[in-house]
TrEMBL record:
Protein name: Cation/H+ exchanger transmembrane domain-containing protein
A GO CC term attached to the entry: plasma membrane
Organism expressing this protein natively: Aegilops tauschii subsp. strangulata (Goatgrass)
Lipid bilayer topology: Multi-pass membrane protein
GO molecular function ontology, one term from the record: sodium:proton antiporter activity
Transmembrane feature ranges: 18-40, 61-91, 103-121, 142-166, 186-204, 216-236
Keyword Transmembrane: yes
Gene Ontology biological process: regulation of intracellular pH; sodium ion import across plasma membrane
Domain Cation/H+ exchanger transmembrane residues, every copy: 10-236
Domain of life: Eukaryota
Catalytic activity line of the entry: Na(+)(in) + H(+)(out) = Na(+)(out) + H(+)(in); K(+)(in) + H(+)(out) = K(+)(out) + H(+)(in)
């Protein structure tokens, strides 16, 4: 692919599509989260019933994901912001027993799902068909891997350090302790690991039932696997 042949209109279209997807997915997730908080607080149905409160929160979160997928939006982004809004509003409108139950249920489900993803990656990493389908030389694969790691390092730094400086500036006169440079480095380092979400997105976008015959798609899958293994083993310790 010749980068010089990419037109400015195509670049603007990609940026516009990204902003549209980000904005609409965020609004949808936040709206469903606020609606859930309203239902739990204002309506009698399910109030003071741990079973119903937990079920309502879980089903509404799943509903946000399904609606996003039906509307061709980002399901992960939608359910992410839905969860943020729920944690700030809906979670405080339920009983104490429901809070404890939801905390442990969602933590358990998250752990099981992430374990399953990594188990699948470990088993699929030995699938020689994908590595043969890539048709990329060892030198090219190393180059792709290096570029991805560099982008991860730079992208994480571009968010962590400026936002930390902004946070320190906005809370300069308050009693809140500033984020020191050492803490900023720790925050930057802690977020370098790529994991379940990266793998799930790659497989969802570039494979059909975990199988692909496209060399480019196979290269993306294998590169993602290598990056996840490397960042988990190196940055995870």
């Amino acid at each position: 692919m010749d980068i010089t042949k990419i037109k400015s209109g195509a670049v603007l279209k990609v940026i516009g599509d990204f902003l549209y997807l980000f904005a609409t997915s965020t609004i949808l997730g936040a709206t469903i989260g606020l609606f859930t908080a309203y239902v739990l607080k204002a309506l009698y149905f399910g109030r003071h019933s741990t079973d119903r409160e937990v079920a309502l929160m879980a089903l509404m979160a799943y509903l946000s994901y399904m609606l996003a997928e039906l509307l061709s939006l980002s399901g992960i982004l939608t359910v992410f912001f839905c969860g943020i809004v729920m944690s700030h509003y809906a979670w405080h409108n339920v009983t104490e027993s429901s809070r404890i139950t939801t905390r442990h249920i969602f933590a358990t489900l998250s752990f099981i799902a992430e374990t399953f993803i990594f188990l699948y990656v470990g088993m699929d990493a030995l699938d020689m068909d994908k590595w043969k389908t890539t048709q990329a030389s060892f030198k090219t694969s190393i180059g792709i891997f290096g570029v991805i790691i560099s982008l991860i390092l730079l992208g994480r730094a571009a968010f962590v350090f400026p936002l930390s400086i902004l946070s320190n500036f906005m809370s300069g006169n308050s009693e809140k302790a500033p984020i020191t440079f050492k803490h900023q480095v720790v925050i930057w380092w802690a977020g370098l690991m790529r994991g379940a979400v990266s793998i799930a997105l790659a497989y969802n976008q570039f494979t059909f039932s975990g199988v692909t015959q496209d060399p480019v798609h196979a290269t993306i899958i294998t590169s993602t696997i290598v990056v996840v293994f490397f960042t988990t083993l190196v940055f995870g310790f």
